[in-house]
Design goal:
Blueprint (H helix, E strand, L loop, with lengths): L5 H14 L12 H10 L6 E5 L7 H10 L5 E6 L3 H10 L4 E4 L3 H12 L20 H10 L10 H11 L4 H8 L3 H15 L4 H12 L2
Parallel strand pairs: 1-2, 2-3
């Protein structure tokens, strides 16, 4: 489960263990970046990844896409405290298999079962809010593999971290000290990020980055 609210993670973990006996919460994370790091160092893959859509640093849709680019497992289930319609289309495009309101834990448990076996979750109870077309994990993986990422989605992990620091107001000198890189190396990465994202300059890149974070 990925959510930037530790209390939500704790309460959801308790509730889902009650609703899904025999299931295990392998791990939780407060940031999307933490998930990507875990992917590199931990060989275990969950059957289902729950992703909050509204997170700082890396948005839920951005994380969904990064995870789906890495393979057709796990199934991804988006969750939100806002109206489902606010994020349904973004979650579907990013490779999730469904979206559900995080406060409705009974329906959340149903959705987890629904996508765990390779299916999709259609939340009929949400009406038009859930009308986005979700793919199976397999189909979403094939689709996203065939798409050329644009904007900040085109950045690699290193570039994303440096742009995030830049968005926090760090100068190149401070970013270099923070990351242990040379100033010229930092500038080279940021210049490459500007080109890859299609931004006109570093300021426009930061604006694009902040817009993604806000979902």
């Amino acid at each position: 489960m990925v959510d930037n609210d530790p209390l939500v993670l704790q309460l959801l973990g308790i509730r889902l263990r009650q609703l899904l006996p025999g299931w295990t919460v392998l791990w939780t994370a407060a940031r999307g970046e933490d998930v990507l790091v875990r992917w590199k160092v931990d060989g275990r893959r969950p059957d289902v990844l729950l992703v909050d859509m509204s997170m700082e640093s890396m948005s839920g849709p951005a994380l969904c896409r990064e995870v789906r680019l890495r393979g057709e497992k796990p199934a991804i289930l988006a969750m939100t405290a806002f109206s489902i319609g606010r994020y349904a289309a973004d979650a579907a495009r990013a490779g999730a298999q469904g979206i559900v309101a995080k406060h409705d834990t009974v329906r959340l448990a149903e959705a987890i079962r629904g996508v765990a076996g390779g299916g999709r979750w259609s939340d009929d109870g949400a009406g038009e809010d859930a009308s986005a077309r979700f793919d199976t994990a397999h189909d979403a993986y094939l689709r996203i593999q065939g798409e050329r990422p644009t904007g900040v989605a085109a950045l690699n992990d290193t570039e994303r971290r440096l742009v995030d620091l830049c968005a926090r107001g760090y100068t190149s000198d401070r970013i270099a000290r923070e990351t242990g890189r040379g100033v010229s190396t930092v500038n080279t990465h940021l210049e490459r990020a500007v080109r890859k994202s299609g931004a006109g300059n570093r300021l426009e890149l930061v604006t694009m980055w902040l817009r993604e974070r806000m979902g």
